[in-house]
Amino acid sequence: MACRQPLTPVLRQLARTTSSELGRQSSRAQTFALARRATKASAASTSRRCFSTTRQRALKSTAPTCQAQSKDDFTSTKYPELKRDERFACLTPDHVAYFRGLLGESGSALIDGVTGEAAADLAPFNSDWMRKYRGHCQLVLKPSSTEEVSEILKYCNDNLLAVVPQGGNTGLVGGSVPVFDEIVLSLGRMNQILEFDEVSGTLVAEAGVILEVADQYLAERGYIFPLDLGAKGSCQLGGNLSTNAGGLRLLRYGSLHGTVLGVEAVLPDGTVVDDLSRLRKNNTGYDLKQLFIGAEGTIGVITKVSIQCPQRPAAQNVAFFGLESYEQCQRAFREAKGQLSEILSAFELMDEGSQALISQVTGTKRPLESTYPFYCLIETSGSNADHDSEKLQAFLESVMEEGVVADGTLAQDETQLRSLWTWREGITEALGHLGGVYKYDVSIPLAQMYQLVEDTRTRVAEAGLLGDTDEYPVRAVVGYGHMGDSNLHLNISTRRFDARVEEVLEPFVYEWIAERQGSISAEHGLGLAKKKYIGYSRNPTMVGLMKQIKGLYDPKGIMNPYKYI
Ligand code: FAD
Ligand code: MLT
Ligand code: ZN
Predict the structure, then answer these.
(1) Which of 8, 438, 541, 562 is at 20 to 30 A from 219, Cα to Cα?
(2) Domain FAD-binding PCMH-type spans what residues (predicted)?
(3) Does residue 166 have its Cβ closer than 6 Å to ligand 1?
(4) Is the backbone of residue 525 left (phi > 0), alpha (psi -120 to 50) or beta?
């Protein structure tokens, strides 16, 4: 279970220094004295941010197998166009008996709502993190080995039982929960770290290892997991690969398509695909493991992962800026790349709306005294604190001198560093506390990126849906994201999910993106949320090839049905 950390205010503020004041300063060192105090972090203590991301929810009891309930919050009720595929068998006590025989009687291996009452235990597996989707699953299976996964899938394939693989259930597109009565195959018990090579940095682990656990294991050995994200306390490596999660440092460490060296996966017919290579280079034919990265559980179950982990940086700095316009954010990014080059490890964007909402939820003091339309968080990670500080100082000086940045603060120690990060990482959770969120995770050429937020806000306001009082479903339209990757998170924070809001947003948002050759799914995947919209980012030839791959790996279609493919 993830741990909760309050959002605490930043303690020190960077001295406000206008360009005229700068002229009066005799030396750079004086001007940015604060910047000198780079965080010298030991490998084990660096950047351990931790969020509660898995909320237990008390849902009402679910219906008997195969019967949809007419409750408003079931996915099948909200989206009546989704129909249960009648080819799939309904679960019977005989099926359950088979799984009990395979996994044992222990409650930790199976949750059975078919032959008994288990609504409360099933509830967290049926409902997604956003509480937007809710399924009717009656059986959760928790295998503890690849062999058990193989036996389960073979049986499901032979008996036409549909399956949803589930990791930490932190996915944001409804891909990790069933729509109807699919069996949930939960990887949480496959949580062993199997190997680590301290010379090469290659980690081999089971798919159910929690990301933060893997990172802490690596920290003790001077390494870092090449992926970091706000849900790290709950999400699992198998889920990370299956969504091809991007996270906060993709800018530095690249995508999982590059860092993953090998995968072990089980196909629906029970075949174990052993591609668990530890090799950095391996050009022997098609790179089949890549198909599992980003497949969202539609072609098989990832059971093991081999991944290349970088050396953990010895020094980290985090700066948080206020900026007057999106143009200035772009300038700051350009300067950061140019001046910080190899030590730049994150460049994140937040608008005032997103920060105001965190502040409203947490009640904590904002990092800067004034408010600005935009904020950027910059992180550097390097091996030499003095060298990094010097570079960062020069950068800070130049962006202040040029008037690119209006105000800023620099973390003075590990606590402040983590605190500053919460103003970026904490947005998702804060929005979740306020009600329903319509989330769009998109890639657009940088120059046009923020325009989407403004155009969407205008559209929602013109539809009469945006306002400060309870009669308006929409509270705010905000934007934040991984500016370093041209990845915007457009979020529409609502007081309650409302079909009228969805109609105003979709397909408007997707059309807007397609017109600019963007991607409708930069990092979260398609899941159920974007099922209808894949055509806005992929042409018919590509969708056709994807369908052929799906047909080849999963001819009976039992893997995560009703989702994007
Ligand atoms: P789940 O949610 O359980 O599953 C996700 C998908 O993968 C589903 O389709 C599921 O069927 C499939 N799946 C899971 N495990 C397996 C397996 N072993 N084999 C086959 N298929 C499997 N995402 C980002 O990319 N970047 C971010 O910065 C980011 N930040 C987040 C912050 C918060 C607070 C939250 C709640 C979510 C965030 N996410 C982010 C989204 C989410 O955390 C990631 O998508 C994560 O990788 C999902 O991992 P999981 O284990 O929770 O997978
Ligand atoms: C993030 O970058 O914070 C995550 O992708 C989650 C979100 O989009 O809210
Ligand atoms: Zn993100």
Answers:
(1) 8
(2) 133-312
(3) yes
(4) left
